Amino acid sequence: MAETLRWREGLDEKFHDAQRFYLIIVASISIGMVLSFLDINPMRALFWTAVMNGVLAPFLLLGIIAIATDATIMRGQPSSALALFFVACTTLLMFSAAIAMFLL
Description:
Elements: H1 19-37, H2 42-69, H3 81-103
């Protein structure tokens, strides 16, 4: 998040200089502690996280395709047709796998 939002970040930074970065770390640790106290099985949590990632990944790939084909965003160097073909095939396979997971 820090790089995306251009926050100062890094464990070598003082708290005063990178407050948002350290608050994200504190929030993450706190969420982990709460999950531990709620007696949530960590392996089951990892499994469902992987399922959510598998369902959301094809949508992210659609975004990548949209960006990769936009000459303005890519500064006049859009991705090649071969690269787009492989990303499109991967996207279709991932959509198929996500749908099959819920239907089968």
